[in-house]
Amino acid sequence: MRSEPTILAFDTSAAHCAAALLSEDRVLARRSETMSKGQAERLMPLLQKVLDEGRTRLEDLDAIGVGIGPGNFTGTRLSVAAARGLALSLGIPAIGVGTLEAMALGTDGPVLCSLDGRREKFYVQVFHDETRTAPGLFSFDEIPWPASETNVAVIGHRAEELANASGSAVCTPSYPLAEAIARIAAARMQEGTQPRPAPLYIRPADAAPPADPPPMILP
Is 199's pLDDT higher than 80? Predict the structure, then answer.
């Protein structure tokens, strides 16, 4: 493996299909398409477009980075399964990155990142220096603001409303989501062997389970 790996990263945890190709700290290609459904059909063609634009073959990759949520149940499962399948076929690692963590990358703390948890709930995670809270699902009044902190950067879902209620400041992510996932995955490669990615489910799926069991994601 090269000291500066080439990483293909992607995410389908929300109403989008996003991918980025990173090599030696340079973004070779990046695409993001908004879609409420159809990610399963669109993901692989999108990844091929990103590889073609970056003039990179699958065989040139050193790792796959993938967003593991929290987010849409089906979308998260789709991207994690695709990442693990690609990694297995290529003999390279797949590295999972939390969506909230990717949103916070590059922003000085304390940072509170928020995603739509539906039903007036928020997926929230707080980052400050080298520490972080566990991602959780909260109502507006339950959000775990950093103690004794007034200068909090708020990123994500209903950020302006959250910032106004707490006297904080609204910020935008420093990187597009798929690029942030790729950058975090690159850093984690230097830390050694990483566990295979698994979806980060904080709430159960809204739909009732089908009569036939879904395909398993092996541990």
Answer: yes
In sequence order, what DSSP letters do the residues of the chain get, joined into one string?
A: --SS-EEEEEE-SSSEEEEEEEETTEEEEEEEEE-SS-HHHHHHHHHHHHHHHTT--GGG-SEEEEE--SS-HHHHHHHHHHHHHHHHHHT--EEEE-HHHHHHTT-PSSEEEEEEEETTEEEEEEEETTEEPPPEEEEGGG--PPTT----EEEETTHHHHHHHHT-EE---SS-HHHHHHHHHHHHHTT---PPP----SS--SSPPPSSPPPP---
pTM: 0.90
pLDDT in tens, 6-17: 999 999 999 999
Encode pLDDT of 115-162 as tens digits: 999 999 999 999 988 889 999 999 999 998 887 666 899 999 999 999
Three-state secondary structure of 115-128: EEEECCEEEEEEEE
